[in-house]
Amino acid sequence: MKILVVGNGGREHALAWKLKKSPRVTRVFVAPGNAGTAIDAENVDIPSEDIPALVKFAKQNAIDLTVVGPEMPLVAGLVDAFQASKLRVFGPTRAAAQLEGSKVFCKNLLHSADVPTADYHVFRDPESATRFVTDRYPSDDESVPLVIKADGLAAGKGVVVCSTRRDALSAIDRIGRQKEFGAAGKQIVVEERLDGQEASVLAFTDGRTIVTLPPAQDHKPAYDGDAGPNTGGMGAYCPAPLVGDKMLRWIEEHILVPTVHAMKRSRQPFKGVLYAGLMITHQGPKVLEYNVRLGDPECQPLLMRLDSDLVDLLEATIDSRLDEIAPPKWDPRPSVSVVMASEGYPGNYEKGRPIRGLEEAAAIPDVKVFHSGTTIDANGNVVTSGGRVLAVTALGTTISAAKLQAYTAVKCIRWQGAWCRKDISDKALAGPREDFRKR
Q1: In what residue span(s) does the ATP-grasp domain sit (predicted)?
Q2: How many domains does the chain fold into?
Q3: For site-directed labelling of 231, which of 26, 133, 181, 346 has its Cα 20 to 30 A away?
Q4: Are residues 316 and 370 in the same domain?
């Protein structure tokens, strides 16, 4: 069969790489892809947001299955357009993708389904949000444990974690008045800040059956020790001992199942990957946000460990047959993925810097270098084209061994201004959190 992967990041490279391993697959196309997918698949020069062109390509090339990686085309209705053209596609519809496309929609649904999440308030203009914060926190000196969010998609940057009133008012101003995130800031969510460690629990669901994947842990802040501004993710590892088997079952029962049922009741059934971004608090797991696709960089360590045929899982989801297939098989070894970024990220950065050492890194056992922000220049060189450039991913007998293998490969790769966090997966060494049900 012929498969089309939509997107150009590390997640899409990992998907293309994994799908190409299926004995059922003959060709994998990636639109638009990157320098890495050009090696492991075939790139197609179509932007991921150009839905009519993608539909046309799928028809003309008799694509058997299209897999949508990023959130933007899902929220824009790519799945609906493909379904209307009788094309097989993996991902939620535009209506179901609101779970990620609108934080207001997500919070309201969580509230109605009695899914644990932070308390919140929604405002349609910056003035009312400002009044709420100043009325509740009249002094500049007191602690202000709030998170300010733009309602819509903002490439993972429309969330500001605040500690002071000044932080909160500045965030409201940036979102609502300065329009830093454009139309995403038409509504503003002000919610309580939750304390604890974050974890990611992803699941395939066909709207009836849920197949939960091993828990992972992303590292959102830019710098070691979770310092600095939030990013799209500086690395991830899997499995995360923070979420043990008992807690994972609790998450399925009290978070994933009620969410899927609530979507079905609202006549917006969810089919695809449901990604729960969780805060593991002392009161138990609470939902920070939902994504409606595989996470990036969580996808890379997850697919590195997946031993089952990914095509079978995708097709069973589309055909509502998840209850009929065997549970996915996983490599027992943990995996660690380290993101290498451009100088200046998550702010401004330069593009076009040549990357050296990729072949040397790829030669290290149990390592795969997934490309995120790369392209091939006129001279045939692999060069940087984004903020997050590579996700160097490795397997190891332990998390520490996987980390060592990943960073050994990182040391092989160089370009001007390259940098990464040095502590990806270190939280795992602290051991699992005490079971909150014993409290």
Answers
A1: 107-319
A2: 4
A3: 133
A4: no
